[in-house]
């Protein structure tokens, strides 16, 4: 982390400053007792959000931010667009967010989907997070009014429409997580 600033300063002062894209992201967070949770494995904001910074000289403006959620699965399609490369023949799971780089304040219906274990999914829109667990329970949070996700609105009738809209993004195909390969003990 210490060297990122020095690297970017050297890039800014070098001959390729106007022709070099930089994408920086980090690991997701974890809970330190919030919601009585002490680990990284959850579907709430603290454990699913990651830092993501993109500088693409022909597409971004300095010191702008975007509230629209994107996924790390979107990085590869975005790089394909930024580098003007031919996409692979198979369908990619992510979607390019070059349009958001050019216009970070644009209205978008994009969502980011997170899965934690079998049939446990979260859908994050610009304003809401909807969580559906394998046992059928649900959570809905309004980030405009409740950024720390303290108040679950899922059972309130006035939020039924929002819940249904976000539930449409829940994956319909679920597979058991892959287990690491067994290793033989050579002792």
> What summary fits the major beta sheet?
4 strands, antiparallel
Helix content: 10-25%
Strand runs, count: 6
User: Which structural class should the secondary elements be placed in?
Assistant: alpha+beta
Query: Strand order across the biggest sheet?
Result: 3-4-5-6
Q: Would you tell me the overall average pLDDT?
A: 88
- Span between N and C termini? 40 Å
Keywords:
187 residues, 6 strands
Q: How would the blueprint of this fold be written?
A:
Blueprint: H1 2-12, E1 22-25, H2 45-48, E2 52-55, H3 75-82, H4 98-102, E3 112-115, E4 121-124, E5 128-132, E6 138-142, H5 160-167
Antiparallel strand pairs: 1-2, 3-4, 4-5, 5-6
């Amino acid at each position: 982390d210490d060297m990122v600033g020095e690297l970017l300063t050297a890039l800014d002062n070098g001959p390729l400053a106007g022709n070099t894209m930089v994408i920086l992201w980090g690991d997701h967070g974890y809970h330190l007792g919030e919601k009585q949770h002490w680990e990284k494995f959850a579907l709430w904001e603290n454990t699913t959000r990651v830092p993501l910074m993109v500088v693409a000289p022909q597409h971004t403006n300095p010191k702008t931010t975007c509230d629209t959620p994107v996924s790390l699965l979107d990085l590869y399609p975005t790089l394909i667009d930024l580098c003007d490369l031919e996409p692979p023949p198979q369908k990619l799971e992510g979607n390019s967010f070059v349009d958001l780089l050019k216009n970070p304040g644009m209205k978008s219906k994009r969502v980011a989907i997170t899965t934690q274990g079998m049939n446990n999914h979260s859908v994050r829109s610009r304003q809401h997070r909807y969580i559906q667990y394998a046992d059928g329970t649900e959570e809905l949070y309004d980030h405009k009014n409740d950024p720390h996700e303290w108040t679950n609105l899922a059972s309130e009738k006035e939020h039924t429409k929002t819940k249904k809209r976000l539930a449409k993004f829940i994956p319909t195909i679920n597979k058991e997580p892959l287990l690491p390969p067994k290793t033989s003990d050579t002792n």
